[in-house]
Amino acid sequence: MLRTKRLDDAGVAKLPVKAKRQTIPDPELRGHYIRITPNGSKSFWAVARDAAHKQIWRRIGDPDTMNIGEARERAMRMISGIRGTVLTDVGQQPSYEGVARSWFERVVVKNNYRSEYMIRLWLFKVIVTAFAGMNFIDVRRRHVTALLDKVEDERGARSADAVLSIISTICKWYAHRDENYETPIISGMRRQKKKDRERVLRDHELAALWKEDGLFGNWTKLALLTAQRKEKISDMRWTDIVDGVWIIRSGEREKGTGEALRLPPMALDVLDAQRQVIEVDNPYVFRPAVGGGVRGKLGRAKAKFEARVPMPQWTLHDLRRTARSLMAAAGVPDLVAELVLGHKQQGVAGIYNRHGYLDEKGDALTRLAARIRDIVEPAPDNVQKLMSVRPRRTV
Asked: What confidence tens digit (pLDDT) does each residue in 58-91 have?
């Protein structure tokens, strides 16, 4: 480590950049350092040992956003917090970081949250840093509001709401562990007004989309024909289809699915087409056999499609809403249509009615397919439209 006699804002600005990363101690505050990377980036850091004698480094900020006096004040709080952090002790004035880490391990990691990566980023790079050195119970509404203001100004209202959701969840979790704790989160702190989307694709948009082929065309067709969530379609495997019935995989903490769906012939035709574009022996219908997913490919294909066929403000999830609307137009009973989507029955019926509705859901998808066929393959004006029912077959 390099050493210097004195550090002020001007001195920090004049610190030279070298080929290797430098860590320069602040002579006025033990445990406060300035790091300089070979690309010229400078940042303030605090270091101390926790109750288990493990050395902990915490990033404070950079000279572009704070002066060295502010960095020292925050470093003192961070150092105090690190020294008082006991991750397994949530009952004796724990630091905010201690509670946050305990919640993350006991709830997010233990329950294998699918959003673990994003939660980790927001929690440790934004939330814990903002409340560094503070005891958990000392973080009040004004502190949370100030953080939300900062995140909204820098990254937008949606990001601020993501931060608020994590903070609120931690507060509720801690409230179950301390009868004297009162959460600082109240209703009305969200920065975005939640609006239910209403977008349903029009007939001419469906017809244009149906002309697409390849992975994007097959994926969107199957989404329309089954009304399933996009992650379920993307994770579909060939072995999930048995005698024309799609057995939809579902894990813990996931939203409901259609469970088992007897696919109409149009959907089976789409799967036949997909076999021609996917790798041989690939267990997945849409995903690559090794590594990666389909989200990026679908996004790029969607952008290319929109460059040729303007369709304003639509998302892949709108296909699910469109399919639900088409089922209603085809005379599918609401109960059956909701079960196709994976929306469970509520109340007493949801508890006692264990009927699987396999045939009813199969009929609903047949009606949906006929409705879609009428839109994308309209019959000549002199031909009367009839619902075509083709014999069942397997993939």
From this structure: 999 989 888 998 898 888 888 877 776 444 443 4
For residues 196 and 198, give the distance between their C-alpha atoms in angstroms, rounded to a whole number: 6
Provide the number of structural domains found in the chain.
3
Structure tokens at 205: 């948009």
How many of the other CB atoms lie within 10 Å of CB of 45? 20
∠ CA 241-245-248, nearest 5°, is: 65
CA distance to 145, 257, 336, 354, 381, per residue, from 348 (Å) = 42, 20, 17, 11, 48
Task: Say if residue 153's pLDDT is above 50.
Answer: yes
Q: Is residue 389 part of a domain?
A: no
DSSP-derived 3-state class of residue 84: helix
Instruction: Kindly state the tokens that stand for 105.
Output: 């391990």
Q: Give domain status of residue 381, yes or no.
A: no
Give the CATH number of the domain where residue 363 resides: 1.10.443.10
pLDDT digits (tens, 9 = 90+) for 112-129: 887 888 999 999 999 998
279 and 369 belong to one structural domain = yes
* Cβ pair 37, 24 in contact under 8 A: no
Exposure letters 197-226 (e unless 16+ CB within 10 A, then b): eeebbeeebbebbbebeebbbbbbbbbbbb
Integer-rounded Cα Rg, in Å, for the chain is 28
Q: Are residues 36 and 128 in the same domain?
A: no
As a whole number of angstroms, the distance between CA 172 and CA 169 comes to: 5
- Euclidean distance between CA atoms 324 and 301, whole angstroms: 24
Closest CA to 171 of 161, 183, 189: 183
Tokens representing 361 are 């859901």
Residue with tokens 């065309």: 217
Question: What is the phi/psi pair of residue 12, to 5°?
Answer: -65, -40
222 with 348, same domain: the answer is yes
Same domain membership, residue 221 and residue 242: yes
Assigned domain for 385 exists? no
For residue 390, being part of any structural domain is answered with no
Q: List, for residues 357-385, the tens digit of each pLDDT value.
A: 999 999 999 999 999 999 998 877 655 55
Per the structure, the complete domain to which residue 43 belongs is given by 1-79
H helices of 176-294, where? 203-210, 214-226, 230-234, 265-275
* CA atoms of 295 and 316, how far apart (whole Å): 10
> How many Å apart are CA 114 and CA 293, to the nearest integer?
15
